[in-house]
Design brief:
This protein is of the alpha+beta class and 301 residues long. Helices cover 45% and strands 20% of the residues. The protein is built from 11 helices and 9 strands. The strands form 2 sheets. It has a 5-stranded antiparallel sheet. Strands 3-8-5-6 form a 4-stranded antiparallel sheet, with no helix packed on it. A hairpin with a 2-residue loop joins strand 1 and strand 2. Helix 7 packs antiparallel against helix 8, helix 7 packs across helix 9 and helix 8 packs across helix 9. The radius of gyration is 20 Å and the shape is globular.
Length: 301
Protein backbone atom coordinates (compact mmCIF):
# COMPACT_ATOMS: atom_id res chain seq x y z
CA UNK A 1 0.00 0.00 0.00
CA UNK A 2 1.31 3.45 -0.92
CA UNK A 3 2.25 5.67 2.00
CA UNK A 4 0.27 8.88 2.41
CA UNK A 5 3.01 11.52 2.52
CA UNK A 6 2.36 14.36 4.99
CA UNK A 7 1.54 17.61 3.24
CA UNK A 8 1.38 21.25 4.21
CA UNK A 9 -1.02 23.10 1.92
CA UNK A 10 -1.36 26.87 1.76
CA UNK A 11 -3.98 28.56 -0.43
CA UNK A 12 -2.51 31.88 -1.53
CA UNK A 13 -5.48 33.11 -3.57
CA UNK A 14 -8.86 31.71 -4.57
CA UNK A 15 -12.14 32.54 -6.23
CA UNK A 16 -15.41 30.76 -6.89
CA UNK A 17 -17.27 30.51 -10.18
CA UNK A 18 -20.56 28.99 -11.26
CA UNK A 19 -19.60 25.32 -11.17
CA UNK A 20 -16.45 25.23 -9.03
CA UNK A 21 -13.50 27.18 -7.70
CA UNK A 22 -9.96 28.12 -8.70
CA UNK A 23 -6.98 28.48 -6.37
CA UNK A 24 -3.29 29.23 -6.27
CA UNK A 25 -1.88 26.55 -4.00
CA UNK A 26 1.56 26.14 -2.40
CA UNK A 27 2.24 22.60 -1.18
CA UNK A 28 5.16 21.22 0.79
CA UNK A 29 5.70 17.49 1.38
CA UNK A 30 7.88 15.93 4.06
CA UNK A 31 9.14 13.16 1.74
CA UNK A 32 8.81 11.94 -1.87
CA UNK A 33 5.18 11.51 -2.91
CA UNK A 34 3.56 8.08 -3.17
CA UNK A 35 -0.20 8.52 -2.98
CA UNK A 36 -3.24 6.53 -4.05
CA UNK A 37 -6.43 8.59 -3.95
CA UNK A 38 -9.53 9.69 -5.82
CA UNK A 39 -10.76 13.28 -6.06
CA UNK A 40 -14.39 14.11 -5.35
CA UNK A 41 -14.21 16.90 -7.94
CA UNK A 42 -12.88 17.16 -11.50
CA UNK A 43 -9.34 18.40 -10.79
CA UNK A 44 -7.42 20.39 -13.41
CA UNK A 45 -3.96 21.59 -12.34
CA UNK A 46 -1.15 23.65 -13.83
CA UNK A 47 2.09 23.19 -11.88
CA UNK A 48 3.69 26.60 -12.41
CA UNK A 49 6.68 25.99 -10.17
CA UNK A 50 7.49 22.26 -10.03
CA UNK A 51 10.55 21.11 -8.12
CA UNK A 52 10.99 17.97 -10.21
CA UNK A 53 9.76 16.63 -13.54
CA UNK A 54 9.94 13.04 -12.32
CA UNK A 55 6.21 12.82 -11.50
CA UNK A 56 4.50 9.64 -12.69
CA UNK A 57 0.95 8.44 -12.42
CA UNK A 58 -1.42 5.66 -13.38
CA UNK A 59 -5.01 4.58 -12.89
CA UNK A 60 -4.62 1.27 -11.01
CA UNK A 61 -8.23 0.22 -11.63
CA UNK A 62 -7.65 0.38 -15.40
CA UNK A 63 -5.14 -2.36 -16.12
CA UNK A 64 -4.88 -1.64 -19.88
CA UNK A 65 -3.22 1.70 -19.17
CA UNK A 66 0.59 1.37 -18.97
CA UNK A 67 1.85 1.81 -15.45
CA UNK A 68 3.20 5.17 -14.33
CA UNK A 69 3.06 7.43 -17.35
CA UNK A 70 4.67 10.86 -17.03
CA UNK A 71 2.52 13.55 -15.43
CA UNK A 72 2.96 16.84 -17.24
CA UNK A 73 2.79 20.41 -16.01
CA UNK A 74 -0.92 20.43 -16.88
CA UNK A 75 -2.95 17.40 -15.84
CA UNK A 76 -6.56 16.42 -15.14
CA UNK A 77 -7.90 13.93 -12.60
CA UNK A 78 -11.59 13.19 -13.23
CA UNK A 79 -13.79 12.86 -10.16
CA UNK A 80 -14.12 9.37 -8.74
CA UNK A 81 -11.18 7.78 -10.60
CA UNK A 82 -8.44 6.34 -8.40
CA UNK A 83 -5.00 7.74 -9.30
CA UNK A 84 -1.64 6.48 -8.05
CA UNK A 85 0.98 9.24 -8.15
CA UNK A 86 4.71 9.12 -7.43
CA UNK A 87 7.19 11.99 -7.48
CA UNK A 88 10.43 13.22 -5.95
CA UNK A 89 8.81 16.66 -5.74
CA UNK A 90 8.96 18.24 -2.28
CA UNK A 91 7.21 21.56 -2.97
CA UNK A 92 5.06 22.98 -5.70
CA UNK A 93 3.10 26.06 -6.72
CA UNK A 94 0.02 25.33 -8.80
CA UNK A 95 -3.06 26.90 -10.32
CA UNK A 96 -5.83 24.45 -9.48
CA UNK A 97 -9.25 24.60 -11.13
CA UNK A 98 -11.84 22.31 -9.53
CA UNK A 99 -15.16 21.61 -11.24
CA UNK A 100 -18.09 19.98 -9.52
CA UNK A 101 -18.55 16.37 -10.73
CA UNK A 102 -20.06 16.28 -14.20
CA UNK A 103 -19.62 20.01 -14.82
CA UNK A 104 -17.15 19.54 -17.68
CA UNK A 105 -19.49 17.03 -19.29
CA UNK A 106 -22.33 19.54 -19.45
CA UNK A 107 -20.64 21.00 -22.52
CA UNK A 108 -20.76 17.59 -24.19
CA UNK A 109 -23.73 16.17 -26.04
CA UNK A 110 -24.52 12.75 -24.63
CA UNK A 111 -21.85 12.81 -21.92
CA UNK A 112 -18.29 11.49 -21.98
CA UNK A 113 -17.11 7.91 -21.79
CA UNK A 114 -13.89 7.60 -19.83
CA UNK A 115 -11.90 5.31 -22.09
CA UNK A 116 -8.40 4.17 -21.22
CA UNK A 117 -7.05 6.53 -23.88
CA UNK A 118 -8.77 9.57 -22.38
CA UNK A 119 -7.59 8.75 -18.88
CA UNK A 120 -4.03 8.26 -20.08
CA UNK A 121 -4.09 11.51 -22.08
CA UNK A 122 -5.39 13.41 -19.05
CA UNK A 123 -2.07 12.86 -17.22
CA UNK A 124 -0.17 15.16 -19.58
CA UNK A 125 -2.30 17.80 -21.32
CA UNK A 126 -0.20 19.64 -23.89
CA UNK A 127 -3.06 21.71 -25.34
CA UNK A 128 -1.71 25.31 -25.52
CA UNK A 129 -5.16 26.91 -25.07
CA UNK A 130 -5.76 25.10 -21.80
CA UNK A 131 -2.30 25.97 -20.55
CA UNK A 132 -2.71 29.62 -21.51
CA UNK A 133 -6.11 29.92 -19.81
CA UNK A 134 -4.78 28.43 -16.58
CA UNK A 135 -1.82 30.81 -16.68
CA UNK A 136 -4.16 33.78 -17.19
CA UNK A 137 -6.37 32.57 -14.34
CA UNK A 138 -3.34 32.47 -12.07
CA UNK A 139 -2.36 36.01 -13.08
CA UNK A 140 -5.91 37.26 -12.42
CA UNK A 141 -5.95 35.63 -8.99
CA UNK A 142 -2.59 37.14 -8.04
CA UNK A 143 -3.49 40.63 -9.26
CA UNK A 144 -7.27 41.02 -9.65
CA UNK A 145 -8.23 43.69 -12.16
CA UNK A 146 -11.45 45.47 -13.04
CA UNK A 147 -14.47 43.09 -12.96
CA UNK A 148 -12.21 40.23 -11.86
CA UNK A 149 -15.13 37.98 -10.85
CA UNK A 150 -16.73 38.29 -14.28
CA UNK A 151 -13.39 37.72 -16.00
CA UNK A 152 -12.75 34.56 -13.94
CA UNK A 153 -16.26 33.29 -14.70
CA UNK A 154 -15.71 33.74 -18.44
CA UNK A 155 -12.24 32.18 -18.44
CA UNK A 156 -13.32 29.12 -16.44
CA UNK A 157 -16.27 28.63 -18.79
CA UNK A 158 -13.94 28.75 -21.77
CA UNK A 159 -11.55 26.44 -19.94
CA UNK A 160 -14.32 23.89 -19.40
CA UNK A 161 -15.21 23.98 -23.09
CA UNK A 162 -11.55 23.65 -24.19
CA UNK A 163 -11.06 20.75 -21.79
CA UNK A 164 -14.20 19.01 -23.05
CA UNK A 165 -13.06 19.45 -26.66
CA UNK A 166 -9.63 18.10 -25.82
CA UNK A 167 -11.05 15.02 -24.12
CA UNK A 168 -13.55 14.37 -26.89
CA UNK A 169 -10.71 14.51 -29.41
CA UNK A 170 -8.94 11.60 -27.74
CA UNK A 171 -9.91 8.31 -29.29
CA UNK A 172 -9.01 4.86 -28.08
CA UNK A 173 -5.33 4.11 -28.50
CA UNK A 174 -4.63 1.48 -31.12
CA UNK A 175 -3.27 -1.80 -29.84
CA UNK A 176 -0.17 -1.35 -31.98
CA UNK A 177 1.71 1.52 -33.54
CA UNK A 178 3.16 3.27 -30.51
CA UNK A 179 6.77 3.35 -29.37
CA UNK A 180 8.06 0.65 -27.08
CA UNK A 181 8.81 1.46 -23.45
CA UNK A 182 12.51 1.01 -24.27
CA UNK A 183 12.43 3.60 -27.06
CA UNK A 184 10.48 6.08 -24.94
CA UNK A 185 13.12 5.67 -22.23
CA UNK A 186 15.95 6.18 -24.75
CA UNK A 187 14.36 9.43 -25.91
CA UNK A 188 13.87 10.71 -22.36
CA UNK A 189 17.46 9.84 -21.43
CA UNK A 190 18.81 11.65 -24.49
CA UNK A 191 16.79 14.78 -23.70
CA UNK A 192 18.46 15.28 -20.31
CA UNK A 193 21.97 15.23 -21.79
CA UNK A 194 23.92 18.48 -22.09
CA UNK A 195 24.25 20.31 -25.36
CA UNK A 196 21.92 21.20 -28.20
CA UNK A 197 18.67 19.26 -28.56
CA UNK A 198 18.76 16.12 -30.69
CA UNK A 199 17.43 16.21 -34.23
CA UNK A 200 14.58 13.95 -35.25
CA UNK A 201 17.08 12.04 -37.36
CA UNK A 202 19.25 11.38 -34.31
CA UNK A 203 16.30 10.18 -32.23
CA UNK A 204 15.04 8.03 -35.08
CA UNK A 205 18.47 6.42 -35.39
CA UNK A 206 18.57 5.89 -31.63
CA UNK A 207 15.29 3.99 -31.84
CA UNK A 208 16.15 2.17 -35.07
CA UNK A 209 13.22 3.77 -36.92
CA UNK A 210 12.61 6.13 -39.79
CA UNK A 211 11.80 9.75 -38.91
CA UNK A 212 8.27 9.30 -40.26
CA UNK A 213 7.69 6.18 -38.18
CA UNK A 214 9.16 7.86 -35.10
CA UNK A 215 6.92 10.94 -35.31
CA UNK A 216 3.75 8.92 -35.91
CA UNK A 217 4.52 6.34 -33.22
CA UNK A 218 5.49 9.04 -30.71
CA UNK A 219 2.18 10.84 -31.24
CA UNK A 220 0.34 7.57 -30.65
CA UNK A 221 2.23 6.94 -27.41
CA UNK A 222 2.30 10.45 -25.93
CA UNK A 223 -0.72 12.08 -27.60
CA UNK A 224 1.35 14.99 -28.87
CA UNK A 225 4.11 15.88 -31.32
CA UNK A 226 7.68 14.93 -30.56
CA UNK A 227 8.82 18.47 -31.46
CA UNK A 228 6.59 19.99 -28.76
CA UNK A 229 7.76 17.34 -26.31
CA UNK A 230 11.43 18.18 -26.92
CA UNK A 231 10.74 21.90 -26.43
CA UNK A 232 8.79 21.26 -23.23
CA UNK A 233 11.52 19.04 -21.79
CA UNK A 234 14.15 21.70 -22.46
CA UNK A 235 12.14 24.39 -20.69
CA UNK A 236 11.55 22.06 -17.74
CA UNK A 237 15.28 21.40 -17.51
CA UNK A 238 16.01 25.13 -17.64
CA UNK A 239 13.58 25.64 -14.74
CA UNK A 240 15.30 23.02 -12.65
CA UNK A 241 18.74 24.47 -13.36
CA UNK A 242 17.49 27.95 -12.45
CA UNK A 243 16.05 26.63 -9.19
CA UNK A 244 19.37 24.94 -8.41
CA UNK A 245 21.21 28.28 -8.61
CA UNK A 246 22.72 28.20 -12.10
CA UNK A 247 22.92 31.50 -13.99
CA UNK A 248 21.04 32.09 -17.23
CA UNK A 249 24.36 32.37 -19.07
CA UNK A 250 25.67 29.04 -17.77
CA UNK A 251 22.35 27.31 -18.46
CA UNK A 252 22.37 28.62 -22.03
CA UNK A 253 25.88 27.20 -22.50
CA UNK A 254 24.98 23.86 -20.89
CA UNK A 255 21.85 23.40 -22.96
CA UNK A 256 23.33 24.46 -26.28
CA UNK A 257 21.58 27.81 -26.77
CA UNK A 258 23.51 30.32 -28.85
CA UNK A 259 23.31 32.94 -26.09
CA UNK A 260 21.61 33.84 -22.83
CA UNK A 261 19.26 36.05 -24.84
CA UNK A 262 18.22 33.08 -26.99
CA UNK A 263 17.43 31.06 -23.87
CA UNK A 264 15.45 33.96 -22.40
CA UNK A 265 13.43 34.32 -25.60
CA UNK A 266 12.58 30.60 -25.72
CA UNK A 267 11.78 30.57 -22.01
CA UNK A 268 9.43 33.55 -22.27
CA UNK A 269 7.72 32.16 -25.36
CA UNK A 270 6.99 28.90 -23.53
CA UNK A 271 6.11 30.21 -20.06
CA UNK A 272 5.05 33.81 -20.48
CA UNK A 273 7.76 35.08 -18.12
CA UNK A 274 11.49 35.77 -18.24
CA UNK A 275 13.93 33.43 -16.49
CA UNK A 276 14.73 36.07 -13.88
CA UNK A 277 11.01 36.49 -13.10
CA UNK A 278 10.66 32.74 -12.70
CA UNK A 279 13.74 32.69 -10.48
CA UNK A 280 12.32 35.53 -8.39
CA UNK A 281 9.19 33.45 -7.76
CA UNK A 282 11.29 30.39 -6.95
CA UNK A 283 13.36 32.37 -4.46
CA UNK A 284 10.24 33.87 -2.93
CA UNK A 285 8.85 30.38 -2.49
CA UNK A 286 11.97 29.43 -0.57
CA UNK A 287 11.23 32.06 2.08
CA UNK A 288 9.88 30.18 5.05
CA UNK A 289 10.35 26.82 3.33
CA UNK A 290 12.48 25.36 6.10
CA UNK A 291 9.98 26.64 8.66
CA UNK A 292 7.12 24.96 6.77
CA UNK A 293 8.96 21.65 6.70
CA UNK A 294 9.50 21.94 10.45
CA UNK A 295 5.77 22.50 10.86
CA UNK A 296 5.07 19.26 8.98
CA UNK A 297 7.51 17.37 11.20
CA UNK A 298 5.94 18.87 14.30
CA UNK A 299 2.48 17.76 13.17
CA UNK A 300 3.75 14.24 12.44
CA UNK A 301 5.37 14.05 15.87
Amino acid sequence: MARQSSQLKRIEAEASFGCGHVQIVHRVWDEPIDIVAASNEDHLEFATLPRSNAARGCFPDRQRIPQFEQIGEVFFFPAGHVVHTKSQCRRQYSVVCSFRPGAVERWLHGGLQWTDARLQASLNITNPSIRSLLSRLGAELRNPGFAADSMIEMMTGQLGIELARYLMGIEDLPHTGGLSARNLRLIDERLVENGAPPSLGELAGLCGLSVRHLTRAFRTSRRGSIGNYIAECRIQRAKHLLASGSSVKSIAHTMGFSSAAALSTAFRRATGERPRDYLHRANAADIGFSYECEMISAVDD
